[in-house]
Amino acid sequence: MRKKTPSIKRAKDRLARISLASATTISVITTIAIVFVLGTEAWRFFSLPEVSVSEFLFGTKWSPLLGNEKHFGIWPLICGTMLVTAVAALLAIPCGVVTAIFLAEYAPSPIRNFLKPILEILAGVPTVVYGFFALTVITPAIQTIFSGVDVYNALSAGIAVGIMCIPIVTSMSEDAIQSVPDSLREGSFALGGTKLDTSVKVVFPAALSGVVSSCLLSISRAVGETMIVALAAGNLAQLTLNPGNQVQTMTAYMVQIFLGDTDAIGVEYRSSYAVAATLFVMTLLLTWIGHTVSRRYKEVYT
After folding, report:
1. Which of 50, 72, 154, 247 is 20 to 30 A off residue 87, Cα-Cα?
2. 72-107 pLDDT, tens per residue?
3. Nearest to residue 77, comparing CAs of 239, 232, 197, 205?
């Protein structure tokens, strides 16, 4: 076989660098474009005479579609989003972390090879399917157990979002746990530690950075979920801590606006960009917190 000439190798290396640089540039430009559009449209919204920045930031009533009695207090939408996210986190984080510990530390290879594809299937199910599942299966089941639960409610939507987020927590947490060196496990066993002691008191703290990152990533995914909450949570923006009540999330409101029933230059349409900008800031803060926690608790092994 003929050896490749140095010029061909250099050309391939240059092509690879150009391809990687192009992909990075496209990502950066896309992010900048999104921030620019959200910032510009949100500024136009707040420049309207009927909109008050103080009401948007501190108001407790959101009713932009009620004729002359329009209110733009963002907190009912934030409350609905956080309520669904809290339910999802309470389900996804414990189940995902426990499953990750089981797969990484306890499960034999046949069981691990059987369960991993099932989790991947859960991750690949379209979110609209989860939404219909929440509406037709989870909600009736909840209503048979608890009375006074609305047809559209935050609890069933949060459970469906939590089921969707379990594969995210499990996959990333398992990778973090498996990256812990075996020398830590062997040292724990040498000191008389049991399998449970080693998993909980040695391996899990060593993998805490990756586990926390996976949890925060799943929370960010839950905050930005659209179709499940649009189908199962409802469209009534209200301040409530009862997960059995109907709520409206920020993403569900944007879906309602972009269905085409509102004027494309009206205040209702532009309010969706302000809501989107608020959602962007929330997810950005979660990402920053995750990065900070990851750096704070990151363990380096040599």
Report:
1. 72
2. 889 999 999 999 999 999 999 999 999 999 988 888
3. 239
